[in-house]
């Protein structure tokens, strides 16, 4: 990791990577680096968020993000409250705005929200005084996933600038892809996206990425590859002949890597993994896979996010 850059953090909310300057991304990564050492202590807990209350408002399923935010908040000594739509008055027709304002009336400081609608965190940030953190909104952004991804690349390869990173899979429906592209480009990486034509956004080049429909091109010279799953839940029409066909053309296997990739290419995946479709069993568990390191780093990155936001009045 490089030396610290001193910046004054001023963001009350984290709604997307789009809103962040490169220096702000670097500030989160540096703060995360110091929290990672806290997590390696015998007692992995520090007091800066003592007295703060953080609500996890998850209106879509999540394993990693929800658990990671909750653990991050607890490691910083905050109180946490979990809120799942399946057991709430959403089911009785209460709106997101009313739900959030009722939660806020219980004197909470931050709301971490995941929602199926793009823009829900932005809407919420205009309804409440509490800080709002986007934990994934529709097909729009998943900022902390991108932050933990760039943290992991930097941790493993020492830098981001001028690295070649390929994002492979269902780019069109992926908030992870969008946030990753924004973060990687802001930090100076060269980004290639690859997938079937139907799963690549039409104006993708406007984001400053190279587009290819050939897996050999995406793998050639890549320092890291980030493999995405097919997001069937966000597709309204049949965009692929079959998952089997997708796996045979775009699935990352040992054989494909041997044929086209650099030997030590970093293998990344945000999860959840569909083994045997976008990634084979042996690649997911290979020595160059950093998939579980991404999960570990997610806690430190989310601690950094909560901590920096808590400093803003
Ligand atoms: N990567 C990610 O967002 O995983 P979850 O859906 O399990 O939170």
Structure, explained:
This protein is 37% helix and 14% strand. Strands 7-6-5-8-9 form a 5-stranded parallel β-sheet. Strands 2-1-3-4 form a 4-stranded parallel β-sheet. By secondary structure, the protein is an alpha/beta fold. It folds into 2 domains: 17-141 and 295-310, 3-Layer(aba) Sandwich (Rossmann fold), CATH 3.40.50; 143-290, Aspartate/ornithine carbamoyltransferase (Rossmann fold, 3-Layer(aba) Sandwich). The model has no long low-confidence stretch (mean pLDDT 94). It has helices spanning 22-39, 64-75, 96-105, 120-125, 143-157, 175-186, 215-219, 243-250, 254-260, 281-284, 291-310, and strands at 53-58, 79-84, 110-115, 131-137, 164-168, 190-194, 210-212, 224-227, 266-268.
Outline of the structure:
By secondary structure, this protein is an alpha/beta fold. The protein has helices at residues 22-39, 64-75, 96-105, 120-125, 143-157, 175-186, 215-219, 243-250, 254-260, 281-284, 291-310, and strands spanning 53-58, 79-84, 110-115, 131-137, 164-168, 190-194, 210-212, 224-227, 266-268. It folds into 2 domains: 17-141 and 295-310, 3-Layer(aba) Sandwich (Rossmann fold); 143-290, Aspartate/ornithine carbamoyltransferase (Rossmann fold), CATH 3.40.50.
Unreliable stretches covering 5 or more consecutive residues: none
- For the record, the count of structural domains works out to 2
The CATH architecture assignment of the largest domain turns out to be: 3-Layer(aba) Sandwich
Strand order of the largest sheet: 7-6-5-8-9
| Share of helix, binned | 25-40%
Radius of gyration (Å)? 19 Å
Query: What spatial form do the alpha-carbon principal axes imply?
Result: globular
Count of separate DSSP helical elements = 11
């Amino acid at each position: 990791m490089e030396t610290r850059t001193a910046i004054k953090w001023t963001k009350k909310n984290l709604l997307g990577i789009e809103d962040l300057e490169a220096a702000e991304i670097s500030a989160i990564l540096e703060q995360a680096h110091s929290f990672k050492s806290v997590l390696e202590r015998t007692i992995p807990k520090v007091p800066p968020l003592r007295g703060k209350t953080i609500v996890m408002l998850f209106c879509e399923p999540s394993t990693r993000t929800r658990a990671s935010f909750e653990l991050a908040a607890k490691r910083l000594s905050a109180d946490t409250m979990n809120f799942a739509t399946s057991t709430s008055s959403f089911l009785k027709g209460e709106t997101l705005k009313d739900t959030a304002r009722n939660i806020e009336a219980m004197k909470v400081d931050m709301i971490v929200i995941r929602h199926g609608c793009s823009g829900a965190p932005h809407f919420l940030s205009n309804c409440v005084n509490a800080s709002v953190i986007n934990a994934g909104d529709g097909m729009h952004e998943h900022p902390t996933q991108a932050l933990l991804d760039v943290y992991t690349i930097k941790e493993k390869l020492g830098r981001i600038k001028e690295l070649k990173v390929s994002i492979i899979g269902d780019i069109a429906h992926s908030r992870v892809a969008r946030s990753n592209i924004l973060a990687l480009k802001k930090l100076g990486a060269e980004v290639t996206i690859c997938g079937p034509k139907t799963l690549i956004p039409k104006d993708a080049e406007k984001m400053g990425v190279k587009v290819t429909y050939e897996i050999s091109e995406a793998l050639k010279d890549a320092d890291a590859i980030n493999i995405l799953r097919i997001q069937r839940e966000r597709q309204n029409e049949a965009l692929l002949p079959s998952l089997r066909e997708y796996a045979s053309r775009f699935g990352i296997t040992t054989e494909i890597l041997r044929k086209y990739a650099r030997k030590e290419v970093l293998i990344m995946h945000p999860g959840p993994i569909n083994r045997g479709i976008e990634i084979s069993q042996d690649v997911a568990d290979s020595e160059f896979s950093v998939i579980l390191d991404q999960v570990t780093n997610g806690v430190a990155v989310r601690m950094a996010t909560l901590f920096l936001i808590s400093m803003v009045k």
